[in-house]
Structure formats: C-alpha cells, structure tokens
Structures
1.
Amino acid sequence: MLAPRLKIIVAEDSELQRLYLCSLINGLGYQAIEAEDGEVALDLVTSTDASIVISDLNMPKLDGIGLTQKIRELDLGYYVHVFMVTGADENETRVEALRAGADDFITKGSSTEMLKARIRTATRLINHAAELAERTRILKEANERIQEDLRAAAAAQRQLLPNLQDDMMGFGIASVFVPSAIVSGDMFGCFALNDTQLGFYAVDVSGHGVHASLLSVSIGHLITPDYVRTHAFDPAGRPDPAAMVATLNKRFSASENDDYFTMFCGVIDTATGHMDYCQAGYPSAFYVDQAGVTSPVGDGGFPVGMISTAFYENKSHHFETGAALIICSDAAAEAGNLLGEPFGDTRVREIAQSFPKIGIDKIPTELVHALNTWRDGAPLEDDLTVVALERKYQ
Amino acid sequence: MIHTTFYDPNITVVRPGVERLTAINAKAFKEDVADLINGGATQLIIDFRDVAFLDSSGLGALVGVLKKIGHRGDLVVSGLNSDVQQMFRICRMDRVFKVYSDVDTAVQTMAETQ
C-alpha cells in the first residue's frame, strides 16, 4: 500500500501566489491544501491531519504570526511544522516569528530547489516523531498489559489468603496484607486441622515484587490443611511443626538460586491453649496477655530453602484465654522514616502491647497506621503482613 | 561497587560500598564477590562497618557467596551493627558465618589460622 501523501496547508491571501506554491508542492508529491487567510488555515490545521503549514506573513483576519501562536496553543498530540514566507531582509520579523513558534523560513522568490530541500528536512523530522510516537504507543500498550496481568495476579494471590472475618474455634483472628508492589512475597494461612487443633503459618519470601510473589503463591498453594495434617505431626500424632519446616527446607533448598523464605508456623490446641510452633528466620511474634504484659515468642531459627542441612526446633507456649499472639513480617520493624531510622522492634512491640485496650481487630490496622505516619505516607519498601490471634474462650 | 583491600597472606577484605545492601544491589554485590572468588581469592572478609542495613535479599547474596567459596577457602564477616547482628541472630546466621567485631580482629585471626 502506498503511504498517504503528506498534507501541507498553504496559507496565502494572494490567489496567484497560493496557486503557484500549491502546484509546486503537489508537483513534489505532497498534497497541498489551500487557505486564503489565517483563520481558514487554523480551521484546516484542526480538521485535517496536516503537519506542515506554509504561511504568508501578512494576511487578513489572522496574520502569519497570529496563526503560528494559535497553532502552538492547540493540543493536537503531534507537532505541526510552520514555515513563514518572508522577505530576505526581514530579520526583525523573523525573530518575532521564531518567538511565536515558527520553525523555518522560506524566502520570497527563492528557488524551487530550496523549497524542496526545506520541506524534505521537515518531513524527516515528522517521520522521526511519528516513529517515536509509535514506539511510545507500543510501550504504553505493553505496560498496560503488564499492569493488568499484575492486577489479576494480585487478585489471585489475595484469593489464596484466608477470609478471617469470623472467629475460628474460639479464636478471634485479624490480619492485614500490604504488598509493597502490586503482588507480594508474603503469604499466610490459618485453618482448622480437626475439632480441636488450629494450624497457622506466615511466610515471607526474600526480596519482593513479582519474583518473590511467584514463590509465595506456590507456597500458599502447597500449605493446605491437609499438608499440615500430613507433615506437621509426628508418628504418634503429636504436633511437630519443625518437621513440616524441615520438609519444606528440603524441597526448596534444591534450587541453585539464592531464593529462600522465612516462616513462623504453629499448631494450637484450642481446648488447652497449648501452642507448638517453629520459627524459621521470621521475626519473633509477640504474646500479649490481658494485662498488656508483652513477651517475644521465639528466639530465631534458620530460614527455609537457604541451607539444605539446616535443622529446625519445636518450641511451645501456653496461650491463656484472653491473650493474643501478634505475628508481623520484618517489613514493619525495618521500615525506615525520612532519616532512614528503622521503625524497630520496640515500636512494633508497643503496638502489640495496646491489644487489651484496642482489641484484636484493630491491632493490624493500628500498625499500618503507625507505619504510614512513621514513613510520612511513603509506601512501604517491603511486603507487610500482620496476623493477630486472640484466644477468646475455651 | 565493592571496595577491596588485600592483606598478606592472601586475605581479601571486601566492603560492600553501599549503606544499604538490599534487593536493589544484592545481585551486583554477589557478582562482584563471585568475580573475586573466580579470580582466586580464598580468604575473604566481608566488612559491614559502613553498612547500616541488610535486607533478606542482601542476606541471600551473602549466603550465596559463602556457598560459592565452599570448601575452597573461608569467608567471614566483621563490623555488624546491632540491627544486622539482630537479623543474624534471628536467622541463626551467627551459626553459619564466623562473625568478628572489627576487620582488624578478623584479619589477625584469619592470618593466624592459615
């Protein structure tokens, strides 16, 4: 298919001059469009897709300089090249025309060759701009597609998270999940394992963004209630969360890359309040009793998928009625303020401590609020997860 | 980005050259240190004196270079601030890396044990 001829508006009040210029331009393979004054030319600029205007200086209604100014005020989405036809010695007028936004001059009575050369220069620029615009359009389209995919991935990831509206086996549960990008490298779950036991876990994949989220989502799919029932109990049926973590470590240490994740998981006997847990590099949780006495739960453990020979320990804690466990990813303590000062464990602990006053439901949002204030509204650099469990009754 | 200083016998001290070793620069750090190891360095000290913060990706890169050196040599760390020390403790990295309070102690101990 032949490329459409480039349109050139010729604004000239002298009919003879206009016809002469138009026939020259048509002869060069362009499509000349006639305008007998500046106003007609301006209308044509908006109604055609002409990207070159050759304008006389003096015209009725709207002169060449006025026309140029009006063209520059338009928002066409592409650039219009304006040539002003002037006399050879009209230097001051030329300066004025340049200030108004003219690009180049055609000297009255100059040769056809000169006109041809000047239009070709403009054409080169126009083609270049069109190429750039096309590239931008393609990039924008690709970007929109990626964003759309990411939003779909984020929605799929959120669907994996438990719906923790209602109490579960005598436990009140509240949570927040704040990805630093659209998708998150965090994951958590909380579910009934049988009539008396509640299982929970929180996972934080190293790094963040798409790469980390791929792993966190696969972990979310892997750790089902069935998986916990099968892997987090010893042959005698006693809770053994460390065994499950060791199994995960074996599975995820196989890859050659530096990916790993940290984890905090446990099994709670809802009848007795006995909790068996395993901490694998995830920050220590906080246990808060009804009087607000707060103590860290756990003193560390190897991350998962980092060292194939790592060993994991079971620890236990008694969960009193009316007490709470606050599990929070390292994004909270590591969040820096404007001076780079981290929010720190102490501040996280203080918020955990406020549980008897504000109630379990408000703990996660209170922490998000405090972090937001700490960072002066700047989004977090790492994915945040807060899971708060309260043993409400036996 | 890393700065290296060489000590006899064959000890290389690496300073990451960033205040925060994070997801943004962890890969470059790992590649730079891997180049040193490929170039024959076997006794490495990573000095964190000027590093204020290390995130999970930074830690991953550090463990990555430790794995790379494997049995070919030794890689120790020095100059951890209290926040980084706390992270090492929670992740049990204090059982994976030999940790020295400062680079001089690390150089001296490494020279004596060779």
2.
Amino acid sequence: MKSHVWRPLYVVIGIVALILLFREFYIPGNFGSGEYGFMYSYHNKDNEEVWKNQPLKYRDTGKQKMHEYCGECHGDEVETRSGDLHGIIACENCHGPALEHPDDPEKLVIDRSRELCLRCHTLLPYTTSERKRIPGIDPNEHNVGEDCVDCHNPHNPRLEDM
Amino acid sequence: MKRRDFMKNTIVAIAGASVPLSALEFIDPREVLAANPEIHWAFLINTYSCVGCGFCVKACKTENDIPFEANASRTWVERYVYTKDDRRYIDSPKSAQYGFTDARIDLGEHLGYQDVDPNNVGKAFFVPKLCNHCATPSCTQVCPVGATYKTDSGPVLVDRSWCIGCGYCIMACPFGARFFHPVLKVVDKCTFCYHRITKGVETACVNACPFGARKMCNIKDINDPVTQIILNERVGVLKDEFGTKPQAFYIGLASEVR
C-alpha cells in the first residue's frame, strides 16, 4: 500500500499511544474493579475507606438499645414512655442526634415544635393507610399558634393522663 | 452429506445445546446463597406500615449533611391518593422531610395545591423511596471517569474527589435517586449509610422509622429474619423491566408506584 494511506494511520496510532501514556500517569494505581467487574465497579479502591470513615451522628441501632442507653441517666422519663404509645419513636427523632452525648453536645437541642407533632397527627382521611390508627387534628383549627407540648406530654400522650 | 451423518450431527447439536439449560435448572438459589456466606446488603420497605411522618428523611438529611433547604434528598416519601371518581394524585412535598402536614395535594410550584374531598378519597398510602442499589446498575455503567461504582458488599457509591459532575448517571438512573449536591457540586446519592452498616449500626432512616416500614438485611444470610421475608413473602421491585435488578424490595406495591 502507498505511504499516503499509512501516514495518517501512524498519526492516529501516535495519538492513541499518547492518550494511553497520559492515562497511565494520571490515574492513581489503586484503581481497579471488584466483584462486579469493569462495567459496574471500576473505581479508586481508597474511596471505600473514605466513605467508611464518614462521621456518625445518630446513636445505636434499635429502639431497645436506645432506651437502655438513655435510661442510664434519664431512667424515669424513658420508663414513662418506652412501654406506651410513643415508645415506638426513637429518642433521637425529637431530641436530636446524640452519638457522643453527654460529652458532645452536652445538652441536646429538643425539637418541641408544633410541626414535629403534626408529622403524624395531622388528620388525613386515609382509611386504607396505617395512618387511620393515629389520632389526628386539623392544624388549621386545633389551637392554632400554640405548641402541642403546652398541653400534651409527648412522653405520655394519653388524654386521660393530661 | 449422507442422511446418516445429518441425523448424527443433529442429535449431537441438540444434546450440546441442551446441556447448559439443564445445568441451570438444578441450581437452587438457597444453595448458592448458603455457599457464599458473604455480605450483600438489601432493603425491605413495607408500604402498609408507612404513615408518611418523614422522620426517615429528616434523619437521612441530618446524618449525611444534605441541606434541608435543598429540594433534593437521598430518600423521600411519596403519597398516593386515589379518589372514588378515579383520579390519582401523587406528591412528595419537599421530599416529605417535614412529613405530610396538609391534606391537600402539592402539585408543585406553579400549580399550587389540589383540594381533595375527604369523602371522595378511595384509597391512599405512602411509599418511601431511596436508591435501589441495583445489582447491575445503569448509573455506574455510564460513568465516563470511574467515579461511581458498586462495592463488593452491594452499596453503590460516588467518589466525590473523582466525580466531574457531568450528570450522566443522574440521567441513567431510572429511579431518580441521584442529584447534585448543592454544596459540594458533585453527584450525591443514598449510600445505604455505608459508614454505619460497615460498623454494624443500622442506617439512619431504618433507625428513625417508628413503624418498622424500613428494614435492612444481608440477603446472602438466609437466617436473617428480613431475608426470610424477601424469600418467602410476596415482594416486588420498582421498574423491573429496566433490568437493573433493584435490591430494594417492596411489600404492597401498586401499578402506579414506579
């Protein structure tokens, strides 16, 4: 074949070689694929450690363990609620993340807002949903502007104990 | 070719072709699972239990530093309302990070709110959603730089230092589970709380759910009670037809939930 065919081909081969050379130096050596192969998991292996080392904020797993931990200091409060209606709600849902508490933060910021209670206790007319079992109010009519905790005890929400 | 040779070759070809088929049929998934006792994380969502409180979204955003002002979230809850005159409404105001505190349907910024007569509500339910951590994820397949990947234990992660922010994976995800992190300016998504599950602690959303609507399990451990539910009960996945093999299983799906 004549050289005018080969010459551009050499140029292309040269460009490809340059790109591969650049790639060789630019990509860190710890790139590789895992069990799922090149198609799904070609990545920097060090990054898995980066994600593993993200700081935790919320505490332990399970409400039971949570009640045990919180009960060490706040025994009475935990006892009031853990067996009854609101016992299914993890303490941290209202009291905030408490991984290092009582060291950091020393005092938890409690969400006492009306909006927090309304997450579950807004009246929604959904008879086919689990929501039907939760007593609800119309937020536009029931003591507008006041905080729920002014009248209701969130640890013991039974109306007969109010 | 003689008739005898033709018959011979035909029999050999049929026998050869049928071997792989019969070999596949004898595999019992439980035996395979028992033989590989490693970890593969999966998620189970019971839509019957969800009441739409949004504590999972709140916990997720707090744990993973996703701004509450951003209209994007790693996990979200959708509300489905079917009226008796056969209208269907779906909404997820602010990813349900403050729950559903309005009986009206949020149609979006420009359309406002839709009133639904309480007597007209036929059925209604809530569906929590998150990244499905597919077994063959289309999002990691399209990444041009190798910044997003599937780990050996299942979760699909994004390398924040390597992501160039092209958004190809956001387009490739059939479930809309990916978004741009408004502060870091890279793609972000649910990690199954990789920093928690690798330490033996449950994810922030599972931990926060008061009703047990969200559960996590090692799907390779057949003694895990949640794995037992996935194996023995009627569970479904979202958008099975995309072939990405989602690893988030749902109890109580409807055809409108996609």
